[in-house]
Amino acid sequence: MGKTYKLKVNESYDFNLNKEQITSLDVVEKPQKKYHILDKNKSYQAEVLQSNFNKKTYTVQVNGNAYEVKIADELDMLISELGLEATAEKKENDIKAPMPGLIVSIDVEVGQEVAEGDGILVLEAMKMENTLTAPRNGVIKAITIKTGDKVEKNTVLIEMEE
Description:
mainly beta; Biotin carboxyl carrier protein; globular
């Protein structure tokens, strides 16, 4: 058996999926974060409405119904099992690229106040546009990239201050 993921949907339902179950789905990617999924002869229309890579949470609409999905991989589950979750979140001053990609747009300016969860830029990776959000309330201190830049994982994109 391959890698295992735990999904919590709408804070109420838990699902455990392995890589084989996920790759067995017939998924056709359509423009604008939309997908057609075929599973056991059942058809589903899905769309990613919102994503937060830092918190591993997504808002997904499936056949017209919206779902809040939190994903945990094997490391997240092990950390939880061992009781090692951080009790207090650290203040993040640097917003880094969660994966290699292309900067599609920058939606903030230096000196702008942002609230936790505000969209700050769009990173295209693996043929998907991903909106990166502010990890906390603060002020944009510096923008170290520009639209059209190719970035590697962990590249500092934006610096914040309180």
